[in-house]
Amino acid sequence: MLLNNNVTEFILLGLTQDPVRKKIVFAIFLIFYLGTLLGNLLIIATIKTSRALESPMYYFLFYLSFSDTCFSTSIAPRMIVDALLKKTTISFSECMIQVFTFHFFSCLEIFILILMAVDRYVAICKPLHYMTIMSHRVCGGLMALAWVGACVHSSAQIFLALSLPFCGPNVIDHYFCDLQPLLKLACTNTYVTNLLLVSNSGAICTVSFVVLMFSYVVILHSLRNHSVEGRKKALSTCISHIIVVILFFGPCIFIYTRPATTFPMDKMIAVFYTIGTPLFNPLIYTLRNAEVKNAMRMLWRKKLISDDKK
Description:
310 residues; mainly alpha; 3-stranded mixed beta sheet; globular; Olfactory_Receptors
């Protein structure tokens, strides 16, 4: 329910107001977004068409790439278009939709990263029971829980956002709509709302990061009992996952676990997990994974053969 809400649209200040720098932002982030789409869609197509990538790890990687694509699309296109405009406005309803989609896909990514850690733990620590524990039915059930959990989290964010009264001003010092910059515009005491924000988003980020790092410590410790070849392969996979976890959770924890204060660097730090992580994930998972690279080569050969036949 909206209370005393006289604001129908918000003005987004973006990363910069300088006309020259806005053109640079447009060029750089257009390249980043196209790279994100190309990389993640290539992984999606490769996993979908390759029989060699049917293990649970690639099942979760498929959904991670899908989540990255949607996550980036919820932020980047508007940011890129806004860089070409003198005055960038977003309607109240569009702002709320962006809050929901941003938090939904970011939370979904968190849960998928946890499921990938669980998958690696079972594969390395319980190899004889791997296919029994991580069956198609179990993986499907875990993904369904991840979707439900993400929906619950983003619904809570929307509830908090809609409970805020906005009387003006309507200028958001950010490049997308999020609950923290909206709190600064609310014409009411936001102490309780900020506390709920930290206990929701902040707790999810911090607890998930601790759980993930602890799980990888356990996994890496258990590798001492494996053969040199098996240890090397498992270590390569785990290091890829750890890099992704640090890149994503580091900025998130910085933004969402502190009181309602903002710093000039917040917008640039937000770029790391809104634009950077979806771009780097495909590079990390392909460059360090021989199976994915081989499957991509096979997909490319099939395309060349089909083109030759035409």
